[in-house]
Design a protein that fits this description.
The chain has 16 helices and 13 strands. The chain is α/β, with parallel strands linked by helices.
Length: 392
Amino acid sequence: MKKNILIIVSRLLEGGIDTVLVEFLRNLDRERYNITLAIGICMGELEVYRNDIPGDVKVVYLVDEDYLLKIKKQKRTGKVHALKKIYDELILSGIRRYIQQVKIKELSECNDIILDFDSTFYSFLKKITKPKICIFHFSFRRYYKGNHRKLKRLGRKLDIYDRVVTICDEMNTEAKRYFPHLKDKLCTIYNAFDLDTIYRKSLEDVKSDLIKENYIVAVQRLEESQKDATTLINAYKLLYDSNRISEKLFFLGDGRDKERLVDYVKSLGLSERILFLGKIKNPYPWMRNSKLFVLSSKFEGFGVVLIEAMSLGKVIVSTNCPTGPEEILDRGNAGTLVPVGNAEMMAEAIYKSLNDKEYIASIKENTKKQVEKFEIKRTMIKYYNLFDSLLS
């Protein structure tokens, strides 16, 4: 008999978690489960992947009233007056939370198991007795930033779940160190993808002559609190000034720091060499046709985009940030790892990854073996076993 699974996520935008969620929904076995997806808030036209959710998934928005979300949407797309922010945080936030709590309680009553996909609904799930799982997508060390009170509070929150899924071994090790009382609840299941689908999408036509250029590509949000486009720009500047690079640099993505980064590139005199192409729904053709893929980040949940680039056979340069890149790139055997914020070492890694033919061949061979670990079928089997263990 089919089981009913409730998957909840805070919102649906354009990040790595959203990409993973869509793949998870596509591959979840319909012979085993009826699926309801509850999305915390409706972000309207900002929901890049909304149309990618399979049609047989029942989608419920916990909050979709425009008057409760208008300011929140404005905060995603531009600057908002301070008084509006205060009103949203003090008044509207409480109303949203109350509505979410009521609806989650109602939905839980008609489902057998609950998967909190981005581990944000713990306060609403405390008193719900159905089996509860959360997926934690970020480095615990980075999350608490030395604030031990915040870390202890997180430990109490995670304790309300029956299982806590970490998305890499490094994260699991962190969790055991910080939360020894959770050791029996922890398990590692990689984020994974349908690699055949990624390749098929990479073959789609692109109506832009830019894709025919020789270029390096970075696919990331332009938000410097987590990402680090500045270091990549500085690395490119070093290579350009020393006449060691002919390829252009393309950024695919959007974010609140885009305008500042565009101005910075302009100040360096590189506006014709470093291009910001904006948010592109299907980045895979751009990735497949690139000479090199680069991830420059201060920290990651796992670095989903690295797996996508690996599946397309790309040579990769990545910052060795917490958590994920070191594990994904097999400690440097399937791509070059450089220290966070080090433009000089990133520049050298980029140069080598573009020009050292022997090195490139070695990396590509290792990449073929490494990427198999992240095939979606392996991941789904682990989730089925986890669900079965709790439902039994």
